[in-house]
């Protein structure tokens, strides 16, 4: 078992190392599932096989020691060399290969359940959601709001509530589902979404916006126009860059692209059933549904709702819209 366990642990380490240096495309959900499965098997084996064996060996040692002491006592020998308590402790102790497998199972399964069905942490890598979310924000995503899903397979097992306009949602990037993206839900199934001349219209109604003080982006050292927008029941802020054109350059080919009409003013799209139209709050610096299309329900990960840490700015901690 020591050799087998060494091989299993070496395989996990090799995969993580190859992922880290970019030799393979990692899948943390799959890695965590396999770690839970493997350590769970070891935990069951420890509980129902290895531990009873060690307990039996310790009990046998105690019986043999007692019998030996009785025989020596008959010969008039009352003092016996050896520490039975220490020997029993060594017999009962877990070997290293069980410490690193069965011993880790309670922690790993707790992380697995928490991450798969309750809350998952993410780090914001880009500025597409500025000013709502900044680069470096560490956020929490609610995994049950839109219905529970099986890990790895992402198959929905409970209904939950449907995503609403204005929700900030994490989803699997349709052109490459191994990547997680975060944007705001702008259009739900059946909506007609128009983004023309940098104004958002839903089902023929232009969304109300109010100008607020300009936003200073510390990374680019520039000021951007900032507006407060009412999307559904959510009031949030968006940025516009006057130096960027209104039209959408270089839109990809995607499923249901026939539902979209592109022009020099922007784009108009009819959201198909079971899909969502996503946009970043940094409207002129966001690769979103205008470019790569609609997000299917099966790609949904969860609803982002809380910044739990930003090491560069502790004031960022808190909930957001």
UniProtKB/TrEMBL annotation:
It comes from the Bacteria. It catalyses: Cleavage of hydrophobic, N-terminal signal or leader sequences from secreted and periplasmic proteins. The keyword Repeat does not apply. GO terms for cellular component: membrane. The chain crosses the membrane at residues 28-45, 97-118. Residues 98-309 form the Peptidase S26 domain. One of its GO terms (biological process) is signal peptide processing. Its main location: membrane. This is Signal peptidase I. It comes from Rhodoferax fermentans. The lineage of its organism: Bacteria, Pseudomonadati, Pseudomonadota, Betaproteobacteria, Burkholderiales.
């Amino acid at each position: 078992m020591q050799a087998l366990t060494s091989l299993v642990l070496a395989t996990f380490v090799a995969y993580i190392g190859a992922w880290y240096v970019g030799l393979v495309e990692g899948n943390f959900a799959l890695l965590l599932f396999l770690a839970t499965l493997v350590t769970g098997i070891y935990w069951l084996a420890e509980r129902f096989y290895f531990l009873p064996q060690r307990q039996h060996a310790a009990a046998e040692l105690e019986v043999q020691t007692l019998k030996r002491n009785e025989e020596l006592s008959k010969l008039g020998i009352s003092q016996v060399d050896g520490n039975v308590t220490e020997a029993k402790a060594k017999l009962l102790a877990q070997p290293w290969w069980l410490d690193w497998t069965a011993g880790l199972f309670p922690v790993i399964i707790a992380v697995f359940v928490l991450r798969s069905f309750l809350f998952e942490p993410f780090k914001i890598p880009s500025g597409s959601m500025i000013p709502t979310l900044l680069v470096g924000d560490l956020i929490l995503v609610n995994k049950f709001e839109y219905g529970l899903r099986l890990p790895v397979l992402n198959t929905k097992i409970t209904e939950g509530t449907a995503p609403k306009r204005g929700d900030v949602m994490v989803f699997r990037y349709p052109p490459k589902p191994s990547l997680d993206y975060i944007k705001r839900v702008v259009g739900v199934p059946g909506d007609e979404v128009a983004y023309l001349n940098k104004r958002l219209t839903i089902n023929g109604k232009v969304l109300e916006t109010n100008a607020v003080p300009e936003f200073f982006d510390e990374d680019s050292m520039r000021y951007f126009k900032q507006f407060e927008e009412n999307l559904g029941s959510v009031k949030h802020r968006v940025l516009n860059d006057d130096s960027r054109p209104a039209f959408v350059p270089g839109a990809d080919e995607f499923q249901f692209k026939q539902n979209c009409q592109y022009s020099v003013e922007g784009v108009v799209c009819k959201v198909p059933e079971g899909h969502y139209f996503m946009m970043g709050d940094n409207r002129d610096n966001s690769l979103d549904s205008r470019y790569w299309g609609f997000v299917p329900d099966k790609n949904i990960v969860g609803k982002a709702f809380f910044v739990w840490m930003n090491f560069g700015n502790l004031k960022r901690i808190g909930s957001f819209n």
